[in-house]
Design a protein that fits this description.
Blueprint: E1 5-12, E2 16-26, E3 29-39, H1 46-64, E4 70-77, E5 81-82, E6 87-88, H2 102-110, E7 115-118, H3 119-130, H4 132-135, E8 141-146, E9 150-156, E10 159-160, H5 192-195, H6 197-207, H7 223-231, H8 235-259, E11 263-267, H9 274-288, H10 290-295, H11 299-303, E12 311-314, H12 321-333
Parallel strand pairs: 1-4, 4-7, 8-11, 11-12
Antiparallel strand pairs: 1-2, 2-3, 5-6, 8-9, 9-10
Helix pairs in contact: 1-2, 3-12, 6-8, 7-8, 8-9
Amino acid sequence: MSVERYSIGVDLGGTNLRIAAYREKSIADGEIVESIGLPTRVAAGSDAVADDMSKAILQLLGKFGGGENFAGLGVGTPGPLELPDGILRNPPNLPGFDGYNLSEAVASRVGMPVIVESDANLAALAEFRLGSGKTYAASSLCMLTLGTGVGNGIILDGKVWNGFSGMGGEAGHNTVDPEGEPCPCGSRGCLELYASATGVQRMAHALRAPSATDGEASPILSARHIAESASAGDPTSLRVFERVGTSLGIGLGALVNTLNLELYVIGGGMSAAWDLFAPRMMDELRMRSYVYRLNAPTEDESRTRALRKTHVVRAELGSDAGILGACLLPFVQG
């Protein structure tokens, strides 16, 4: 009789914090058995966030931790991230966290080792093991997560690829417009500025004319509302998602030419607008990447998920990818 094994995972985002206990059924199957959601109190400082996180971890440890059946504790965080130490290095979406040793801070509060990894790498790990990677029988994949920013995770031959210092997979800060807007990372025209939820808000706000009645600019809408307007045919919102698609196509073209993997996955909250940006994205990708053109699947090959073709797909795990990856991390690296 097999013994159930558990882990605890944390998904630290710039807006929300999620902590979950996970039960492993097999190497390619498992389930979240309990989760806790909290706002990320970025304005209160890094220690306040670590306090909130640790209290929730201790709550779940009381139910699911301890003993040989507990695999460990995994934490996903926005990067850049210095590994294996777990030190944040000027993360654009966590202001005030530069130099913060997240691994040490949480470990000292909960009394056990903590494995820290990039949130985008963990989303990619979950997609590889439990989602599209499993569906397409892929040995490697590259994932872009479109949320508050644009994360990037790479799985090579079944393993997370970190680079030599833990900062591999930062395609969200590759330039797609050399003359574009300044980015908090210090560059200009980064993919993140044109394919994230905040980028969609910024572009829509910049394109909308001032109100005819009072001369003031219209209020900044959420990315979801802008997507709904685009689906309803609003020309300004449609222009925004055309730009999203163009930027993603440029970014993907560089990744396909560089990596030549069989699977590229688009996830994160913004992937819900797939139908609005994917056609333009694929047109741009075909134009930008000769490697893609040489390996692009036909319609029939896409439908049958043919091997040895370059597939570009929407992620399967939705908003659970990051937390599932954090829960899987102890089983992979523990």
